[in-house]
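Lesson 9: reading folded outputs for more than one chain in a single document. The general rule is that every protein is listed as its sequence immediately followed by its structure tokens, and records are never interleaved. Here is the first one.
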Amino acid sequence: MTEQAVRRYLRQIEEESSQAALRDFYDLCFDRFFRIAYYYLHTEEWAQEVVLDVFLKIWERRDSLHRIADLEDYFFVTVKNASLNYLEKEQRRKDQAAEACAGTADTGESPEDILVSEELFAHYVRALDRLPERCREIFIRVREEKQPYAQVAADLGISVNTVDVQLQKAVGRLREMLGRYIDGTEI
């Protein structure tokens, strides 16, 4: 996802109220937005719902899109907040259905630990977006979706060896891009 492409689509959405530009923007950004939402929600259906809501909000707020200075941070925070709001709404619904007192489980994590893990996840999403498309697709299928090498190879029409090589390349590049954050020099 390049900022130039995103700004072009946002400009078309804003100036022309172009639904075609919104569809193209959706195609460009859906996977990334979905990964962010899924990180917080851990449910595909909920993540898809949140992402669709985010795109609806983008459409509704199309007149002010030109004012966004840092698109990457804006969209990350927007999807994150929408996900957290969704979780809160679901928790309230569960509490009401159970007629139980609202309570949150203590995870034992400090606010600093939570912030560091969220920042690291944001860097992970950015690094994943910088991988070549095929490399990224293989990494996501094998590591995040837990698909077997043979299934990925068959679906993509490549050899199992190619899947392995591409996965190793993705892991190496991610390790290189995220190394400074994991070592604690950036956070």
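And here is the second record, again sequence then tokens.
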Amino acid sequence: MISKKIVSVITSVMVFCCVAGVSLTNVKADDSAPKSVDGSYLISADSSTGYTPNNERGKHLMDGQCSITKSGTKRIYTYGATTADHTVDALAVIVYVDQYNEKDGKWDQIDAFSKKVENDYYVATSKSIQVDRGYYYRVHASHIVRMAGSPDEETFSYTDGILVP
């Protein structure tokens, strides 16, 4: 009778260990990070904002940012801005809109627009774009500041890729 209890306890412990092992294995398999393509993660969020790296500040250039937001079923809203430390001769932002090409695993540019201002410290531009559903889209931007007697200062920012379902 004692041996039946021991066998029963050992069997129960083995079943518990097997169930726990399978559960832990499933948790590990589901713990996957989003795919990264050229610095942008492919995410399912409604928007993403990118900023210039902190170490990219210059004598005149302070920072830049860009963003992308879902804006309806087949539309995205894109934005870019450049900020200088003070009034400069000219500053600009160039905004590039990319669509992820799953076949070659790269970003394809589908649109670009820019804005330049003179004798100011801030420039921003935005655009609403109609897009195809079922793709990831991202924005990246170039931020440029020009001041007489100094070389042009330029840096970049980019967002993650958001899915337009």
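What the second record shows: Confidence is low (pLDDT under 50) at residues 22-30.
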